Each structure stands twice: as C-alpha cells, then as structure tokens.
Amino acid sequence: HMLTPQYDDGDLFSPRTAPVVDKSAFIVGATVHVNHRQLGGRLAGTLKKVNRLRCVIDFGARGVLTVPMDLIEV
Fold it and tell me: Fewer CB within 10 Å of terminal CB in the chain, N or C?
C-alpha cells in the first residue's frame, strides 16, 4: 500500500516567483528617489528605462546606474 508523508511539501515544487513590486508605479521620465549608502543616502534621479528586475536611473553628475526595483521609492 501507499505511504502518506507526515509532512506538507507545500510550496516545495512550485515555481519561484519574482519579488512583489508594483511595476505600474514606475513611469519613464518620472523623478524617483533611491535610498542607499553607496549613493550617500537618499538621492533623486530620472527614470530612463524599466527592465525585468532593475531600472535604469540617470543621476545627473553621478551618472546612469541600474538599480534594483526594491530600492526605488516613487
């Protein structure tokens, strides 16, 4: 007869989901803020492009950087 497992394998075999970030909030050309110690705290920049997991942001004199979405405040 079949043995039933004593544990619940729950989400063990389900596909990995992307981080929950509202992509519709990111509008190209909008001014966004990035809070990170490498940028010296909270820095404002212009959103240039939205990729799958990261956004391209122009910080003017600091240059153009690719920043993960979870660090961006709209």
Answer: N
